[in-house]
Amino acid sequence: MSREDKTLKELMAEFEQVVGWFDSDELDIEDATKKFEEGAELAELIKARLEEAKNEIEIVKKKFDGNASEFDETEANDL
After folding, report:
1. CA 37, CA 60: separation in Å to the nearest integer?
2. In a 3-state reduction of DSSP, which class is residue 54?
């Protein structure tokens, strides 16, 4: 399964493993560089997923705030 197909929970668990690796006593500069890159990639994916969730929440909030009649897909794309 590619990272893009993983859930946010799975991505967070993978990120925590990478971070935990840096707490170990077995740090190697070459491995550390690779792990740092891996962590950065995971962080970007997590950030994107959280932004998507935020946008979805904003859409739902607008619908329940009584603005459903004013709300359109153009506005949803701007979020």
Report:
1. 35
2. helix
Place of tokens 């969730």: 53
Name every residue whose Cβ is closer than 8 Å to that of residue 70 and which is 6 or more positions away in sequence: none
The distance in angstroms from the start CA to the end CA of the chain is 29
Give residue-wise pLDDT tens across range 23-50.
888 788 899 999 999 999 999 999 999 9
In angstroms, the CA 22 to CA 55 distance is: 33
Whether the pTM exceeds 0.90: the reply is no
Rounded Cα–Cα distance for residues 79 and 77 (Å)? 5
